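Retro notes
What went well: the complex prediction finally ran end to end.
Inputs used:
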Amino acid sequence: MDINNYIVTKAKNAKLAARTLSTCTTNTKNKALLNMAAALMSNAQSILDANKKDIKNAINEGKNKAFIDRLSLNNDRLESMSNGLKDVASLPDPIGEGIRSWKTEDELKINKIRVPLGTIGIIYEARPNVTVDAAALCIKSGNSVILRGGSEAINSNLEIYNTIYKAAISSGLPEGCIEFVDNTDREIVNLLMKLNDYVDVLIPRGGAGLIKNVVNNSTVPVIETGVGNCHVYVDSDADTKMAEDIVINAKTQRPAVCNAMETLLVHKDIAEKFLPHLGETLKGLGVEIRGCNETQKFIPNIIQATEEDYEIEFLDLILAVKIVDSLDDAMNHIYKYSSKHSEAIITNNYLNSQRFLNEVDAAAVYVNASTRFTDGGQFGFGAEIGISTQKLHARGPMGLNELTTTKYVVYGNGQVRK
Amino acid sequence: MDINNYIVTKAKNAKLAARTLSTCTTNTKNKALLNMAAALMSNAQSILDANKKDIKNAINEGKNKAFIDRLSLNNDRLESMSNGLKDVASLPDPIGEGIRSWKTEDELKINKIRVPLGTIGIIYEARPNVTVDAAALCIKSGNSVILRGGSEAINSNLEIYNTIYKAAISSGLPEGCIEFVDNTDREIVNLLMKLNDYVDVLIPRGGAGLIKNVVNNSTVPVIETGVGNCHVYVDSDADTKMAEDIVINAKTQRPAVCNAMETLLVHKDIAEKFLPHLGETLKGLGVEIRGCNETQKFIPNIIQATEEDYEIEFLDLILAVKIVDSLDDAMNHIYKYSSKHSEAIITNNYLNSQRFLNEVDAAAVYVNASTRFTDGGQFGFGAEIGISTQKLHARGPMGLNELTTTKYVVYGNGQVRK
């Protein structure tokens, strides 16, 4: 099999479909999404059977429990995927939305409107729900999509893909609107990353290794997602009860995600009042604390924090804690270690809250709230394709609008340039 | 000299400056821009002397007249550069502008505001004015900038840089806010393209070769500018006088730029009425016409158009002409050959105008106006860093807003995620 020909053919099909999709009516797109939702449930048994094969393979390969959990499907999860499709159908269509309109000195009337990006490539790992979520958001925003999921989920993904693709086509969407890479040869990803003639953007979704590989090797523009080394800074003026609630939420409510807190910074003047009680509570919740020398005075029997503890994303019930001398110290620490995802200050001091919001550079900066809110759903976007940690095109949670580009539509009556 | 150390040091300085610049007041930035404008005029003689060296070298190297013209400075051009700085000072500051604000279901108040990108690298060729224009736009939008101009203009660029940088620093901007690569080793560009830790975006400005090199080799995100294979389609229902005026303007007013027309498409039903007179006029203006077989029936003694003529950007007084059977034929031709920059239809038919605007995918689509209007100044943006021909982040003319990213500023009162 010629894998170059294989992936180029898929990319060409997707590009061809994108031209038709860009002018599909909202009604056609929504009808397709609802039919895809129904098909997923009516074909549930085949999907679950395919998933069992993947799980069996994963167990044989000695994958850990967390991996198996991400991979596993059941009726509840299928229903949640199906409901996700219905939710996307109910969202407003971003295509054609006017962003700005004005008249120039030459009396040209200009409308800046949203149009689809074209063809989007999604490279992802073990979660089969991405197959559905990504397809739904791309279709709704008028884009064709090329899906390349992890080899560990290939049976589940393929059965899901066949189910939703059939429903999409029979609802009037163009052939090629969703393409799925059913060959798990890793070389295909390398080829896909160079197909600038056919693919408008690549969005990698998964671990740091996958994302780094795509960012370093793709000539197709990439939207980087995922890494979150997030901080909560408890200022000297903080309400300690509020601070404890937020810290516990940001660390323990779902530690394995990118908007969870990884390092807690505490102003020295509040440490004695704040840390002993917090330390007990965190330990009771199973959190491993790694503290600086000062922290160890207030929380006994914890591990010494190293430079590396400040650098990495634990994605686990582990928390680095550091006592700082001032707001500036806290902001310098954040400047040095932050991945610019989500950063929070807990304070009742107006000036400090404003300085933190203005001076800390991140996709989302918070006063007196948990970093866990950085999420398309929580922000009210209705759905999310990922959280961008880059600055170009989209920053923070990406909903339907972030899957569009713009076009200037210019109405003249014979104008020429002088 | 260790060139890696050389460019990394510059990039580090620029990154350090970006942190300070992001919170500079509008007043400080404007004062600096006005002082830079004044310094340029008071140091005019040294700049013109340095420019003479570059011109002498270019002549010795046998560069052509157009090249020498792009490289040459005189008092008028210096004054225009100085006025450019004043214009940028007078534009509204994009930083801090609110894009959207809302309240979530959890009563979080979210503001989406504009913030600087950080550090911008500009890689350009022989025009010394880019040194000033790019620095002005980056500074006003709160970004630090690393300038890497062509070796042919090194003496001019260095004198201009020293002049404006001194004025910037003495006006209170941070050291490193404008860095200039005064080593013309080409390897430095390759190193710069990999400095993701320090540089947030690269904008290449110049010929297709330069842009392709940066797009293919940069791991730093790139905004692609420049290539414009633009079409004007004269529909069967067009006002032929208006069509002729627009065609002549789009082709001849400034043929060497990206928004000039390269191919004219004419509906077969209007060809006999439209083409003979247009052909004479174009020939009188020195335009070389390359036509399809049908075109040659209406404009005698012209060159046969080849496939390649439809593919390339002439950037010269050369025009490809093709007669098409229908609007669909015209749109198919545009779909096949367009670089998605600027596309125009000339028509009085409402339905056709709407179909063209909806179905043609380009940064700017026009009815009854010249493609030459795709320009930051003409669109009313006040200034322009280039015209993006990509779909991510910015599409079409890029002004100050396109040199910014966004940040979500979230005000809470103790919210945690359930």
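What we learned: Chain A touches chain B through 68 residues (CB under 8 Å).
What to try next: split runs per interface for comparison.
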